Structures are given as structure tokens and as C-alpha cells.
Amino acid sequence: MRFKTSVRNIQTFSKLTASLSSLGKVAWVRLDDDAVRFTIIPETGTQVWASLSIESIFEDYTIQSAAPNNTINLELPLPPLHRALKSAINATSASIRLTKKDGIPVLSLTIITNTMSSGNSANGFLNGANADPFGDNAFREEALDANMRDRETVVTQDIPIRVLTAVSVEGIHEPRVREPDAHIILPSLIQLKAISDRFTKLAMATTTSTKSGSSSAVAPKLELAANMHGSLKLSIATDSLNISSVWTGLTNPELDPGQIEDGDLENLPSAKLKAAGPDAWSTVRIDGRDWGKVLSVGRLGGRVIACFADEHALILYVYLSNYDDGADESVLTYYISSFSV
């Protein structure tokens, strides 16, 4: 079993791990000849299925295993990986390889940085330390130090992992969700997150429940709705609060007939919702704090399509810009269950 690669886009990789680690501390990572996949399946909350083209973050990619398509399955702690990548942001180069240290499998991240150094510049300052700072030679001109050169610094950080058997992961698959009632391209996630977080904080400040003689904040539920006429609505309601925000002029993307069984677009739930007019909405209710974590993916940029299965689930497809034109598109898929109340 062998895996080694250079990281071509450290900043994007770091932002990705930051976003993923906000939703789960451990990820199932599947590496093969075609793609890199990160999967997070927490006990509660949002599931993430991220499929990245190799070219979007890696180069000089080498993988080898006895499994079909040279597949390697890993259980990877996300916070240590993110910390290691943050330290590599200003690196000249970075590489990752699968190896063992003291019999324990690790992902070894090697970071190389170059800094300008001079062999005798410090001595020059020290030799003049006792000179008169206001003398005639206080600002004497000097020649450029010929010994100044780039100094290469190499730092290696090891991240303990588990190598998973193919049998242990073969039953894991993306949730099956019925055809959506509405699909819409979301506005700026940074803007949407700011408003969502504000709504959640206001609701938490005004909502309490009494249990065993004490009061505790109840997790607020945001109501998110979309129609098939370019509108998105975010709202929240408590006993003392009822606020909403509406976006208009958004895009409802056209569906690909080739992706639809029998290519029958007219009988899809989204077609029926569109025919019902702009006052017909598909609605989901989601945990405000979990939603705020999901929206942290906005730091990656890219186009985000939200698919609404009314009162059932919300699926986000986050399409990332690729490093090379013509490369396979990378997509992160978020599955968020809707609360029934």
C-alpha cells in the first residue's frame, strides 16, 4: 500500500478541512485513482459527502494498493490535519505520504519554507554595539552581504490515522432522498450566514424552557423556504419574536433531462411547484447552530445549489472552482434533515 502526493493548493485544502471539522472531528477518506472523497456521518446533524478532483488540490499523485482502482480507505482526525495545513499556508511546497511511525500508520505532512539569511549580518550589528550612535560613522554605507542566501527549513508533522478494510466501509452510502420540490442557487453564503447567525442568536436570547426548576436555551429552528420563481425566504419565530428575510431574483437552475428517469420533466415535483406560482413554497426547518456551521463552506467560494424536499430534507451541492480548466468538477454534498416541528 502506497500513497504520496504534493499539495498544489494548500489554501483551498486548509479552508476545506476547516469547514469539514466544524461539522465532525473524524472523516472517512477514500483515495483512489480517480478522486479524493471526504465523508462525515455524525450521530446527529449534517452529513457531508465531498468528492474532489485530484487536480483541485494535489499534483504528482501516486497511489497503489491491492484493492480495485487502487482504493485506500482511511479514518482521519480533521482538527490535526487542519492545524498542520494552517502551518503550511506560506510554505514553498508541501507533500503528504502514508507511512508508519513506531508501528502506527500516519499521514506525514512535510512542509518546506525558504527564508533569507546572512551568515555575518548579526555580527555586523554586534561589532558596532559600543560605537557612538551619533558619531560620523553612525550611518556608514556598507556593501550587500555576498553571503546572504535562501535558507531551507523542513518541518514534518505526523497525523495518526486508521487504515480501514474495504468490508468495513462497503455498506456506507449517501442518503436516498426523494425528488426535490424546489432547487435554487443560493445567494452569497457569507451574507446568508451573517443573517442566519443573527436570527439564531436573537431566538436563543428570547426562548427559554423550564426543566427541573431551571431555564435553558432551546435550540432554535430556522425555517428556510424556496419557490421556483427565484425567491428564498429565511425566517424564525418564537413566542416573542417573528422575523424573516427574503431574497428575490435568484436562479432556479434547469434540470438535465438525462439525469431524470424517462426524461419526464413536466411531472417532477419542482415543475408542479413552479406551475403553482410564486406563492407556492417548499419549506424545511433546520437547527440554527448546525446551519451556521454548514454555511462556513462559503469560505471556499463556488456555486451552491440548494434542493428542498418539502418538510423532509435540504441538500446542498457546493461546486468548487477547479485549479485547471477542463478538470473534473469537485462537489461537496450536504444532507440536512428537516425537523417536523
UniProtKB/TrEMBL annotation:
Gene3D superfamilies: 3.70.10.10. Belongs to the HUS1 family. InterPro entries: DNA_clamp_sf (IPR046938), HUS1 (IPR016580), HUS1/Mec3 (IPR007150). One of its GO terms (biological process) is nucleotide-excision repair. This is Checkpoint protein. It is found in: Nucleus. Pfam families: Hus1 (PF04005). The keyword Nucleus applies. One of its GO terms (cellular component) is site of double-strand break. It comes from Hyaloscypha bicolor E. Its main location: nucleus. Keywords: Nucleus. The keyword rRNA processing does not apply.
